[in-house]
Design a protein that fits this description.
The chain has 188 residues and is α/β, with parallel strands linked by helices. It is built from five helices and seven strands. It has one domain: 3-Layer(aba) Sandwich (Rossmann fold).
């Protein structure tokens, strides 16, 4: 595993390459700050068994916080931006990192996997509303009651309106640049 300074340099270079190659495929103008990443990881309910599925880990800022909080053996990360894959795999050799479309996350789940939470760094606001609603519904359906879908967003409005039977909470992270929100959807 790389030290923090080396990981940060490699991650920022990968972030810039990803942003230039596919601006709409990257959810932010800058990588997530450690404060934002830790706020996202803090939303996990560690009493829930199973995998934490990370959709769009990007440079791994949130992945690092998830590993710190839940352990590398519980993380399954899915990334489709090729410039992020090698830095992610070098930085997190013990995390299961898959290449592919995170919107089709079910294809990457091990058979009979138990899912503890789905964490998303995907740029949902660039996607049609029906796609966003479908992702949220599928992410909660693959979990037991109390399942979590945790979404990073830079919007003041929720990226997906909560459906009936789903509680929604928001936490603003002012220390991030730009300020961000952590939207947590919980099935009842």
């Amino acid at each position: 595993m790389l030290d923090d300074a080396s990981a940060g340099s490699l991650s920022y270079g990968a972030f810039l390459r990803g942003l230039i190659a596919n601006p709409k495929g990257v959810s932010a103008p800058t990588p997530s700050s450690p404060v934002l990443a830790e706020a996202i990881a803090a939303e996990l309910d560690l009493s829930r068994p199973g995998l934490v599925v990370e959709l769009g880990p990007g440079t791994g800022a949130v992945t690092a916080a998830l590993v710190k909080r839940a352990g590398s053996d519980r993380i399954l990360a899915i990334e489709r931006e090729t410039s992020f894959l090698t830095p992610l795999r070098n930085r997190f050799p013990d995390v299961d990192i898959r290449y592919g479309d995170a919107l089709a996350f079910e294809r990457f789940l091990p058979p009979d996997a138990v899912i503890a939470a789905v964490v998303s760094g995907l740029p949902l606001l660039h996607l049609p509303d029906a796609t966003r609603r479908s992702l949220l519904a599928r992410a909660l359906e693959c979990q037991t009651k109390g399942g979590l879908f945790i979404q990073l967003s830079y919007s003041w409005l929720p990226p997906v309106k909560a459906a009936e039977g789903v509680a929604l909470s928001k936490r603003a992270i002012w220390q991030n640049f730009p300020p961000a929100h952590v939207w947590t959807y919980k099935s009842a």
